[in-house]
Write a structure and sequence with these properties.
This protein is of the alpha+beta class. The chain has one domain. About 15% of the residues lie in helices and about 35% in strands. The protein has two helices and ten strands. The protein has a six-stranded antiparallel β-sheet. A four-stranded mixed β-sheet has the order 1-9-4-2. Strand 6 and strand 7 form a beta hairpin. The longest helix has 21 residues. The N and C termini lie far apart (about 55 Å).
Length: about 160
């Protein structure tokens, strides 16, 4: 859940870094039970207003449970989706029961100014969900360049044989 009010802060009383979460240097634990609901305060330190971001949930759920993601507070107009091996669901929809992980959670339609904070909340109506949240792996530029060269080569071969 994405929320617009205060929550648990990172070490030293400062919010967790959004760029650290996105690039994988920060991993948030999500051990969810009926009496626990981890709330992490995140600061937009990307240097500009963000309108969307994605995170990766790696974890397990009991066979009768699901995850869903919502936006509320100042983000009521935003949307979110969960995509993984079990398919894709939208805002307020359930991924599972029996959902397979890892799953990418994408928040969009945001307007979070640089330096602003927001909450990332993990909650459940039942015990047993656990996992972690980190950045979504992004191919490094060299890998993308290699892929582009390969595609250009395939296209050139296709033209030669045509």
């Amino acid at each position: 859940m994405l929320n617009g009010s205060g929550g648990l802060q990172g070490t030293g009383g400062t919010p967790f870094s959004l760029t650290g979460l996105e690039n994988g240097t920060i991993v948030l634990q999500a051990v969810i039970g009926t009496q626990t609901a981890p709330v992490y305060e995140i600061v937009n330190d990307a240097g500009a207003t963000i309108t969307s971001f994605s995170i990766l949930f790696s974890g397990t759920l009991p066979s009768n449970q699901f995850i869903d993601w919502q936006t509320n507070g100042g983000f009521a107009g935003a949307s979110c989706s969960i995509s993984g091996p079990s398919g894709t669901v939208g805002k307020n929809a359930q991924y599972g029961p029996g959902g397979k992980f890892p799953a990418v959670i994408t928040f969009s339609g945001l307007n979070i100014a640089n330096g602003s904070t927001f909450d990332l909340v993990f909650s459940s109506f039942a015990n047993g969900a656990s996992g972690s949240v980190s950045g979504v792996p992004v191919p490094e530029p060299g890998t993308l360049l290699l892929l582009a060269c390969g595609l250009i080569g395939v296209a050139a071969l296709g033209r030669k044989h045509a």
